[in-house]
Amino acid sequence: MDDYLTADRPTFVTHLECSMTGEHYPADTLHNLSKVGRPLLVRYDLSAVGEALSRDTLSARDTDLWRWRELLPVRRAENIVSLGEIETPLIPVPKSGGERVLVKDEGRLPTGSFKARGLVMAVAMAKELGVRRIAMPTNGNAGAALAAYAARCGIETIVFCPEDTPEVNVREIAAQGSRVWRVNGLIDDCGAIVAKGAAEGRWFDFSTLKEPYRIEGKKTMGLELAAQLGWRLPDAIFYPTGGGTGLIGMWKAFDELEALGWIGSKRPRMYAVQASGCAPIVRAFEAGEEHAERWEDAHTVAAGIRVPRAVGDFLILRAVRESGGKALAVGDPAILKAVDDCARRDGLLLCPEGGATLAAYRQALRDGEVDADEEVVLFNCATGLKYPLPPASATLDRHQVIDFEAL
Amino acid sequence: MDDYLTADRPTFVTHLECSMTGEHYPADTLHNLSKVGRPLLVRYDLSAVGEALSRDTLSARDTDLWRWRELLPVRRAENIVSLGEIETPLIPVPKSGGERVLVKDEGRLPTGSFKARGLVMAVAMAKELGVRRIAMPTNGNAGAALAAYAARCGIETIVFCPEDTPEVNVREIAAQGSRVWRVNGLIDDCGAIVAKGAAEGRWFDFSTLKEPYRIEGKKTMGLELAAQLGWRLPDAIFYPTGGGTGLIGMWKAFDELEALGWIGSKRPRMYAVQASGCAPIVRAFEAGEEHAERWEDAHTVAAGIRVPRAVGDFLILRAVRESGGKALAVGDPAILKAVDDCARRDGLLLCPEGGATLAAYRQALRDGEVDADEEVVLFNCATGLKYPLPPASATLDRHQVIDFEAL
Fold this sequence. Notes:
Two copies of one chain form a homodimer. By secondary structure, chain A is α/β, with parallel strands linked by helices. The first copy, chain A, contains 14 helices and 14 strands. Chain A has helices at 3-6, 46-52, 55-60, 115-128, 141-153, 167-175, 187-199, 214-218, 220-228, 245-259, 280-287, 313-323, 332-346, 352-366; strands at residues 13-18, 24-25, 40-44, 90-92, 101-105, 133-137, 156-162, 179-183, 204-205, 236-240, 269-275, 326-330, 376-380, 394-396. In chain A, the strands form three sheets. A six-stranded mixed sheet of chain A has the order 4-5-13-10-11-12, sandwiched between helices. Chain A is globular. Chains A and B meet through helix 5, helix 6, strand 8, helix 7 and helix 13 of A and helix 5, helix 6, strand 8, helix 7 and helix 13 of B.
């Protein structure tokens, strides 16, 4: 094992900062939201990081998530937890997307989704800070990642999910040793239960952006993308947006990379993709609002982005606007068609949320929002294998004469 | 893209060779089995490979499967097909296995299984050799990989699977554009239908080891393992054995690496793991036979290794014996317990076939066949998410007063 994984070191974390007010909070203690109820962002001494780490040093390391250790908050090597967070591949989808459209296939991560990036970091920090019991609301994939990493560390977990969460997700969470409850409501209803228990001191609240370290794990999507593309960024990124941790994280990553002098000031246009049946960020974007109101009666086949209210709404909207991008909504039929086309024509099975990014790209292309010759990255946030596929087989009796012409 | 992926080159393939008689066959033409009905092996000019490629050159390349291009048969760059065949991670399972037990997690490959390694190569070669229509019998995962790569190349595919193949596999195959038939029989019954259609000239037969290139793709498991471990090999490998292509492929890879001078003569003990309900190789191994008879009434939860008869039986048995390993059978209860333990304690969800390797390792440890301080690699051949998990959730009414003590 390389020494950056085994050597203890002071992290380069200087402090945490309220994303709304800028108020400072100390590192190395447990935090949820800031005093004004907003997410905390982790800040680093980036000039010290730049002295400790070069792009050449990075290139010599294994390509997994922990190669970025100097830009991550874990202090002691013994608290690094891992299930093999590989660098996810960029897969061209020339037939269903276009010549310069790449899918970053996050379904290859542990537990089959990009939630592993956030949770590996949050659990490692929970371990470092002595947390023994964690609760979380989830639409499925985050709960699976939490359960897996916490099981590995011997941390107890309790997970609450909406009652219509796909059975495969619920069973995966339970198989990995978590106690899992189905709640008659949506993810924010589950979040309310977690918050109540946390207020009573029963567990630590791991809701999206309510603890500061998931975003640090998620930002590795941005770090990795820059490294994979030879220290430049694509023209546009289409990101399936529920809680938006990844979009916020990538935006933060790009700033950190620029501060290190590893990339320039050029940024991709960030497209926050939501489903028409649950599009609070799109509504706020179009209305010019800084915050997004709760979306009532949320419904979409893309359960992972069925998030009626996001605590980081203003951070998502800010990043999208600064980037020159947009928030876009796509309907379920377009999502399902995109999934079908990509599998059938490019051999790549997307999850519905990944399908939403392809559908949004197609819509943006039609609307002249992107050009066909621009380099675009779509995030497929989970393996398509977790989601129901249409039935499609016929039976053949081997004892009968087979009509080969008809096969 | 690096030039080893874009530059055309003569391959280093010199010829193909009958694995039974040693008779030579020309490269660059279509082949199924040799004249005596046995698999063909691809042979290379390894001294020329050694001049063209060094371990340092390899280290500078991206770590995916195509880094091994000089040891692979594809001639023209335009025929390289890819869905992101990443180097699969080695994941320690200290609690359910042991301190030096590593799981090579092949579920991270495209279509969620190690079948992608074989099929990416076989489909690329089919493209290179002008094949337009392919048929294959499958227990599920191979069909999914075939469908995906062939869809990407525009090659037509027809897949036959046993009637009780898991629904998720069948749907995945269909979603990726293949025509799929359920047959009232086992995989060799499906194979008979494919053989009949091939004899009538309706399609090219892609059955395990019946075309020569899947084994070349599968051998990258051995190449990759050596590179990941710093050009040495583990003490023992536990491999879930149905058709055995991977075991045969790794054994071939080790010889090629030794011929290149990149590893020494030390080999891992190879353990071919089968299920008690379908263990033809184990029976032949124990009886000292060179070939294995068909196993009647095959049944096991590990459908991927439910292969009653393997055309490469003698190659599997030869490798196992030369290595000083064994063929081992484990029962379904031990398989299911291993899957459960590994998920619950190490946070890693194995497929049943991967669970079989952990069960076999535990059995071998109890029997003194392996020592606890030996370095062991278990192959988890597919993502555990494709397989049914036990139901395990409770419901909670958010409108009622919640008894937090009881959660």
